Amino acid sequence: MLKVMIVDDEPWVLEGLRTMVDWEKSGYEVCAEALSAVEALRIIQEHKPDLLLTDINLPVMSGLELIAAVKEVMDPPPRFVILSGYDDFNYARTALRQKVDGYLLKPVDDEEIEALLLKVKAIIQNEIASRDEGRKKHNLLVNNLINRFIQGEWSEELERAADKLMELQPGTELQCILAAAVSSTMGQNEGDGEGFPGELGYVFQDPTGRPGLIVRCAGMSSEAIEAAAVQVQKTQSEKLGVPVAVMISGRRTGARSIRELYTQTLEVWGVKYRREKGGIFYYNDLRNMGQALEFAEGHFTRVLEKVKAGESEQIQNCVREAFAAITAMPLKIDAARAEVAHLEMTLCRSIAEMQGDPDRIMNAMRMEYGPLGGMEDYYRLSLYVDRLCLQAAAYLAELRAGNEGNTIYNVIQYVDLEFRNKLQLQDIARQFHMNSAYLGQLFRKETGRSFSDYLNEKRIEAAKGLLKRTQLKISDIALQVGFSNTDYFIDKFKARVGSSPSVYKNANKNKQL
């Protein structure tokens, strides 16, 4: 049934419209009534009518003004029908400009209003169908994007698409809720999005069919998140007829964090699935309690060490040892995949820190092995990890070799741009992930001067320009080019130029004259 709200300042008119018109026959129910436009505005968002039937002559605010105000506060707004005791063309013309769907004269004719209600009903139903279809398409696109993220795909183009479709900003705070049936008899398609409060974020299904929700959690309390999780757990348990566990990740920002948030929920699932009979579990609780999460930090620590050290000949043995430990527990394949997902993220982060492109490795791995979520046995998963680590080790070695020259170039470029600020070799070395003594040696080798000599020369050259072109005081020029001590600036200027800054300034002033 469609909902209609009636607004008229005459109580007898309200009663007559409510009782004399066969609303149910036309497919409507009266959801609310109001004696003024002010009252109608106050309650309309609570009732959300599909149709607003309003008198045109109302106290304080007219029916036409009410229509304009409703359009401002409701999206989408209802359809509108005007009632009037006057056959006034000016009223009708204004009503048409407001795009009302009907203009009825009092007293209302039964046949006329029923015909109009049927006409408006068809319009509303078409709009609802169109909105539903648009929402379905949008949800499918969002679900596809989230699945691409959680399976390790990432690019700037993909992130821009997610920001647009999901209305995300780089600082948008997100959280992941994932539901899974505890029963081992459940198949791949464990559930759907029923019970997930879609108004809080974006419902999705992961590659194994588990339903989840990416929550836009900025400003949401932990109580509100838990209430949503309780609703999900109750609905999914009733629907599936088995206990359901709901896992809640920590909080991160931006679309790029979606994979990490999803992996956190898998980590919780991997630890809890054997010894719990449903419930709500938090990733942060496990971390805070110091429980041993049997994940990448444990099984793949040695593998990561060998990859970063470039010791390719030892990687395969370490991978075999890690999987021997995993299968001995044994971990459910979901938990093992979560470990591998964590390993992927760690390797991608290491590659990105060395100015590499993680997609170069990950896209090649997906082409060869398919998505991680589709690997259903330990053997294939071990082959994938072995190949991934060997490829990552080779790429990191390549980046290290290329970056040594590139890094010193970037350091020099950074100094050229930032020399006016406070710069210290130790800080720059830390920023570029280098040993400060080694960076000093590379700097001298590349420029022929020590870091401090190069920095002072840049500052003095900039000071010469200011001395020629401006009337600034010597002390102000010293500060502008990066010298915090004026006497030190004067000494260095003399040593470099052969005269004091004031003599240099006057000499160039005379030349200009």
UniProtKB/TrEMBL annotation:
Domain HTH araC/xylS-type: 409-507
Main location group: cytoplasm
SUPFAM superfamilies: CheY-like (SSF52172), Homeodomain-like (SSF46689)
Single GO term (MF): DNA-binding transcription factor activity
InterPro entries given in the database record: CheY-like_superfamily, Homeodomain-like_sf, HptR, HTH_AraC, HTH_AraC-typ_CS, Sig_transdc_resp-reg_receiver, Tscrpt_reg_AraC-type_HTH
Response regulatory domain location: 3-121
Keywords, ordered alphabetically: Cytoplasm, DNA-binding, Phosphoprotein, Transcription, Transcription regulation, Two-component regulatory system
Superkingdom per UniProt: Bacteria
Biological processes annotated in GO: phosphorelay signal transduction system
Modified positions (4-aspartylphosphate) in chain numbering: 55
GO cellular component: cytoplasm
CDD domains: REC_YesN-like
Coiled coil: none
Subcellular location: Cytoplasm
Protein name per Swiss-Prot or TrEMBL: DNA-binding response regulator
Organism listed in the record: Paenibacillus borealis
